[in-house]
TrEMBL record:
Signal peptide: none
UniProt-listed Pfam families: DUF218
GO cellular component: plasma membrane
Source organism of the structure: Erysipelothrix inopinata
Protein name, as recorded: YdcF family protein
Residue span, DUF218 domain: 172-320
A biological-process GO annotation: Gram-negative-bacterium-type cell wall biogenesis
UniProt keyword list: Membrane, Transmembrane, Transmembrane helix
Annotated transmembrane regions: 6-23, 35-53, 59-87, 99-119, 139-162, 330-350
């Protein structure tokens, strides 16, 4: 391969990287960041393989061959490995957290992948070649499945790279997002991890920020989450005049909205910097809610979560994100539906 071709490949590789950097700076909570990152990694891999074989360097050629081999193996066996991992995770989660519907998402995902491997080839073989509209319906259904799988991959990548921005200790406020109380009164470990991480970040500030503990009272709770969280933080060394309980919110959107009202009252000029503390699986979607209520100069700090809990939680977050952005997906799928059935109509007339 000549140098001109290599420069062209390098230029193509830089395009998604530049797009990623611009998009990340403007909105690091955008799912498009996952798309640009995937494009960059894919182009970088192609560049490396092309350079390795054009240079005839044996070490680089071996590495390129190994990369290509790993890609091929994952392409053929990755789904089977994922299915086994999902079943194991579902069993582990149920054993530790109990048999509840919201703990069964990895189990449903594993079963869904098994069905996806078995049923489509059977259905495809059973549809007559001249059944254009039936084939169009099947094609659209399969496109929709792989579309949502692809969006899920982008969501995972975007959520992962979201955490790479530095958390500067220059905030005026830290919002701690609620997640429910144990026995209606106690702060459970998941929620405690959010508070503990917020306190740790609070202690890094020379000028201490105000902590806002956001969460209302659920139907099965004896006191508001915000109040319980505030008491927990004061018990762990936070001064009472640096802790505020927001006790009316019922969801993440209201966490952000009602907390913003408190901050606007304390700083009417609106010139303040904010961080919000939640678990690592939740901060990506929470960032979208923060922007929805007008909190532009903010970012999430991610408290660690037990590894076994993350896959199920990420699926739940993805479903919630799809609901949040349903209009976009409806438009995309509607356009594809029109395109596929237009092709079916033309085929039925001409063939």
């Amino acid at each position: 391969m000549d140098s001109q071709s290599l420069y062209l490949l390098l230029f193509i590789t830089l395009l998604p990287l530049i797009a990623l950097l611009i998009s990340y700076k403007r909105n690091r909570g955008s799912i498009y960041n996952g798309f640009y990152f995937l494009g960059f990694i894919g182009a970088l891999g192609i560049d490396f393989i092309a350079f390795a074989f054009s240079s005839q360097n044996k070490i680089l050629m071996i590495l390129a061959g190994l990369i290509a081999m790993v890609f091929v193996v994952l392409s053929f066996f990755g789904t089977f490995i994922l299915i086994i991992a999902l079943f194991k995770n579902a069993r582990n989660l149920i054993q530790k957290e109990g048999f509840r519907f919201h703990n069964l998402l990895t189990l449903f995902a594993a079963i869904g992948l098994v069905i996806l491997l078995i049923i489509p080839p059977i259905v495809n073989g059973a549809i007559p070649e001249d059944a254009y509209y039936l084939r169009a319906l099947y094609s659209f259904f399969m496109f929709a499945i792989y579309y949502f799988i692809f969006v899920f991959i982008l969501f995972l990548l975007a959520s992962w790279i979201y955490r790479f921005a530095p958390n500067k200790a220059n905030k005026d406020f830290i919002i701690v997002l609620g997640s429910g109380l144990r026995n209606g009164r106690e702060v459970p470990p998941l929620l405690a991890s959010r508070i503990d991480y917020a306190i740790e970040f609070y202690q890094k500030h020379e000028v201490k920020p105000i902590l806002i503990f956001s969460g209302g009272r659920g139907d099965d709770e004896h006191l508001a989450e915000g109040v319980a969280m505030k008491d927990y933080a004061i018990h762990h060394g936070i001064p009472e005049d640096h802790a505020i309980a927001e006790d009316q919110s019922r969801n993440t959107y209201e966490n952000m909205l009602f907390s913003k009202r408190i901050m606007d009252n304390l700083k009417p000029d609106g010139k303040y910097k904010v961080a919000f503390s939640s678990n690592n699986f939740h901060i990506f979607r929470a960032d979208r809610y923060a922007r929805m209520v007008g909190l532009k100069n903010t970012h999430g700090i991610a408290a660690k979560t037990a590894t076994y809990f993350i896959p199920n939680a990420m699926i739940r977050e993805y479903i919630a994100l799809i609901v949040m952005t349903k209009r976009t997906h409806i438009v995309v799928l509607s356009l594809v539906f029109i395109l596929i059935f237009t092709f079916a109509v033309v085929s039925s007339i001409l063939l």
